[in-house]
Structure formats: structure tokens, C-alpha cells
Design a protein that fits this description.
It is built from 2 helices and 38 strands. By secondary structure, it is mainly beta.
């Protein structure tokens, strides 16, 4: 049988003259650690934010015009909200009557997890914070606003009962007219009662379509190496129910490329298609790269139940929503500190905002106060791959005696591994559960600058090295596995560090991350 030219061209993957070829995007669309993403459309623009957890600034703001190429524009909070001490989770960005809202989670001082809200006149901010709306004894998390069939605005959230081995109801309660307070009484929508959900239902998102309300939610363990997260859906004709869970749940589960998908929100495009922005772990980078931002279309069948990628799990690639080519995800990053401000992608432990200044193409990073903590000041970058090499250049003179200035793989302040210039030597160290031990000590070269390098493979095996010229490298001790570095809900970051004595200051000329050929070791 002779094939027609159109069929033959399609089989060969070629484009017909005059026929536009389909353009594909690849997941992740937001590489690196971006858990619990939330998204809205404002005209032709899309805005997103995500969990920042124990990192400052709180809640990155990202902008896109095509859903697959995203730019970091800033943060909801450049400085930590005064009422909270940590656990900055699950921000949900939304619009109501021309005003923009970010409902989010934080932990009250000496209190439980709470849901609060910030408002702005534009989606990119600036945002003004308001007091918490709800803080139940078991904790209140994962907020999302929704409007019922009568136009009444509600807040939907999860009661964090699983933190105390209790059920996890998802509640709805009416909001006041400006969306900053709760009124009336809460109503339970669903709770964990299906086997696949385990001890958790969370991360709700409400979509209204063709007379139905759809409650997308996640179940089971979200985070860490043993995660088993997945996404399900329930539906009702009224926001307050009764709700019916899909018998086909979960509708999105892991596959050989991406695991533990869930906790996202849905946006419609100008053509009326539905797009889910959610997170998942790469089975390659896994917990060490973090939960990355994923995009998949949500389609509805004749039974009015939604499906995602035909039930095959997160897509590796799919047709680009707007036919836009996707910029390649690049592990490479460089900062020569020549700008007037730090680049927006730098982060710090949320309780210790760094003291720094940029001067003549150098970053001067200081210890504030009287602490002698080896990691007193930390400035960090997330990574987008499991195999990379990070390098910084430190000016060695002058340095205050006792100062420790270095580079490390950073999980949190209790768990890290790195090398530092300290009292004329190179100290390689490791901190596990708050206990620091020295792995090696070598004399530092007598040179005005010191190059430090961190080589990562598989996301958790680290080798440190130093150089007097950036060409000839000396290893700092042996390579070591550090699988326990990232905390339960976070990923490993690469950090510049200053500490050792009070009022220490480190001077950095540059910082870079470059890709490394993946290890062939098993």
C-alpha cells in the first residue's frame, strides 16, 4: 500500500510545507525547588508563587506569558512577616474584584500553624500583610479562596490533624467583603477516608465548570525519599457539598520519570483550556533537587470527570500551550556581584536575613551581632540538577582572625557540609543534627585570592577542592555521601558562608554553578 504524502510526512516526523509544526515543552517548566505552586491569569499574563518554607525572602513571584517560560520578578515578602516564625508554606495567589490576594501559611510565635493573607493592587505587588485568619489547635494550612454558586466568597483550607495522628478535614468558611477575615461558621467538605489518601488530604483547589464544582486535592506523604504523594478529585453541585470523590482516584500519580506529584492549582487560557501547575520530584534528582514546577493539561471526559495525561502520570513533554518555544533549562548560573542589588534568586535562612553590601564588583557578607556560629551568615542558591560544580572566589586579605569564610552544600543550619578559609588553613567540615566535626585541614595557599569548589554528583555525593589560581586544584579530603542533608520538605542548596567570630566579614569576587557530566556510578 502506498501512503499519502501527509501520512508519510507525519510518520517521519516532518513538517508539511505551509503547515505549522507542533512545538513541545518539557517538564519541569519551573526547574529546581518550587513546591506547592499556585497560578493565576491576568489578561495575557500569568503569575505564580510557591512555598518558600524556611528560606527567605518569602514566596517567590514568577511571571510568564506562555506558561512554559517563567521569570522570577521578586517575592511577596522581601522581609519576614512580623507575626510568624517559619513554615512559610502553600501560598495561593488569586484575584477578586480587581484586588490581588495571597493566602499563605506561617507559624505563629509560640503557637500553631496559621493561615494569613496579603493584598496588593497588582499581581506583582507590593503586598501588604494582614493578621492571620485562622489558627486551629492542630494547625491550619493550604488555603485557597473559592466563590460559591451564589457569588459568596469562601476560604477553603486543611486542618493539619495528621501532625497529631488525627484525621485531616478540609474546611470552608465565609470571608468578609474584603477577603481578610472569616465570618460565620466553618463547614467540612471532605476528609481522608480512602486508602490511597493515607493520613492526609491537603492542597485543595476549587474549579467551577459546567454546573460542577471540582475539588482537586492531594493525598498521602508529600515529601522526602519515602514519599507517595498523588492527586485526586471530588465534585459537587454546591461549594458546600455534598462532595463525591472520583472512583478513579488518584488521577495523577508518579511514573518512571516523576514521582510524588501533587499540590497545584489550575488556570484557564484564552482558548478555554485548563492547565494544572503542580510539583513533583524527578526520579533522577529526587529530593536533592527538590519539588519542581510541572505543567499538564486537564481534560474532561463525557462523564464530566477530569483526566491528566490520560492517567499516565506527569508528562515528560507535551504540546506547548501557546506554540511558544521553551527556553532550555540551564544548570549554569553566574554572579559577579557587579549590580547595585543582589540578584533575585539568592536566598537565606528565613530567621537570619544577611547583612551585606555590593562594592566594586565584590560581595561583602557580614556576621551581625556577637555570634560565633560557623554558619552565622548564609547566602544560598537552589540547584536545578543533581550533577553540578559550584565555584566561588574569596579575597583572602584582610580577614579578621578567627573568621571562617567558605562554600557549602546546605540542608539547613543543623545539616551541612563544606570548606572554609579559617586562620590560614582550609578546613573541611560537616554538620549533622547540629554537631559539627572537622573532616580535613590543609594549609591555605599564600595568595590574594582563594578559589573554592563544590562538586556534586547524584545530588548527594560531594567533593570539595581549592585552588590559588582557578586552574590547579587540590582536593579537600575525600568525597562523601550526604543523603541526610535536605530536611523533610526541602532540597540541598549551595551556600556562601561567613562565621567563626563576631563581626566577621567575607569578601567574594564571584560565584557560579555549571553542569557536570552525570555520574555513571550505580
Amino acid at each position: 500500500m502506498i501512503l499519502g504524502s501527509i501520512a508519510l510526512t507525519a510518520m517521519l516526523g516532518l513538517a508539511m510545507p505551509g503547515v505549522a509544526a507542533e512545538i513541545f515543552y518539557q517538564n519541569p517548566v519551573i526547574a529546581g525547588d518550587h513546591p506547592d505552586p499556585s497560578i493565576i491569569r491576568v489578561g495575557k499574563d500569568f503569575w505564580a508563587t510557591c512555598t518558600s518554607s524556611e528560606w527567605g525572602p518569602q514566596f517567590p513571584l514568577l511571571h510568564s506569558t506562555d506558561l512554559v517560560n517563567w521569570e522570577l520578578t521578586g517575592a511577596v515578602f522581601p522581609h519576614r512577616p512580623a507575626w510568624a516564625t517559619g513554615n512559610f508554606w502553600a501560598p495561593e495567589i488569586s484575584e477578586f474584584k480587581g484586588r490581588y490576594y495571597v493566602y499563605y501559611v506561617g507559624r505563629k510565635r509560640a503557637g500553631p500553624l496559621a493561615v494569613a493573607v496579603a493584598t496588593a493592587e497588582k499581581p506583582g505587588g507590593p503586598y501588604v500583610d494582614h493578621d492571620p485568619l485562622v489558627a486551629q489547635e492542630d494547625g491550619s494550612i493550604d488555603p485557597v479562596p473559592a466563590t460559591d454558586e451564589n457569588g459568596v466568597r469562601y476560604l477553603v483550607w486543611k486542618e493539619d490533624g495528621n501532625s497529631r495522628s488525627r484525621p485531616t478535614p478540609i474546611w470552608a468558611q465565609r470571608l468578609n467583603d474584603d477577603g481578610t477575615k472569616l465570618i460565620d461558621e466553618p463547614r467540612e467538605l471532605i476528609r481522608n477516608d480512602a486508602g490511597w489518601e493515607g493520613g492526609v488530604v491537603e492542597g485543595p483547589f476549587i474549579l467551577r465548570r459546567d454546573g460542577w464544582f471540582y475539588l482537586f486535592y492531594s493525598g498521602n506523604g508529600c515529601c522526602g525519599a519515602g514519599c507517595n504523594y498523588a492527586l485526586g478529585v471530588a465534585r459537587a453541585h454546591s461549594l458546600l457539598g455534598p462532595w463525591e470523590k472520583n472512583p478513579a482516584n488518584p488521577i495523577l500519580a508518579g511514573n518512571e520519570t516523576w514521582k510524588c506529584p501533587g499540590h497545584g492549582s489550575i488556570v484557564t487560557d484564552a482558548q478555554g483550556r485548563y492547565w494544572l501547575l503542580y510539583h513533583a520530584y524527578s526520579t533522577g534528582g529526587s529530593i536533592f533537587t527538590g519539588r519542581e514546577g510541572m505543567l499538564d493539561e486537564v481534560r474532561f471526559g463525557p462523564d464530566d470527570w477530569p483526566t491528566i495525561d490520560d492517567g499516565k502520570g506527569p508528562s515528560a513533554k507535551a504540546v506547548s500551550p501557546f506554540g511558544a518555544a521553551q527556553r532550555a533549562t540551564d544548570v549554569s548560573y553566574a554572579d559577579d556581584f557587579t549590580g547595585a542589588e543582589l540578584q533575585k534568586s539568592w536566598q537565606w535562612p528565613q530567621g537570619r536575613e544577611p547583612v551585606y553590601r555590593l562594592q566594586n564588583g565584590r560581595l561583602l557578607l557580614a556576621v551581625s551581632g556577637r555570634t560565633t556560629n560557623f554558619l552565622a551568615t548564609v547566602l544560598a542558591r537552589s540547584t536545578t540538577a543533581a550533577d553540578y560544580v559550584a565555584t566561588t572566589i574569596i579575597e583572602t586579605k584582610p580577614m579578621k582572625p578567627g573568621s571562617a569564610v567558605g562554600l557549602c552544600a546546605f540542608g539547613d543550619s543543623e545539616n551541612a557540609m563544606g570548606a572554609a578559609l579559617n586562620n590560614g588553613g582550609i578546613i573541611t567540615w560537616r554538620r549533622d543534627k547540629g554537631v559539627t566535626r572537622q573532616l580535613a585541614q590543609q594549609p591555605a595557599p599564600d595568595a590574594p585570592k582563594l578559589w573554592l569548589r563544590l562538586i556534586a554528583s547524584r545530588g548527594y555525593r560531594f567533593q570539595l577542592a581549592f585552588s590559588a589560581d582557578g586552574e590547579k586544584w587540590i582536593l579537600c579530603g575525600d568525597a562523601a555521601d550526604a543523603k541526610d542533608l535536605p530536611p523533610w520538605d526541602r532540597s540541598v542548596r549551595v551556600a556562601l558562608t561567613v562565621g567563626g567570630v563576631a563581626d566577621a566579614e567575607g569578601c567574594f569576587d564571584s560565584f557560579s554553578i555549571k553542569p557536570l557530566e552525570p555520574s555513571r556510578e550505580k
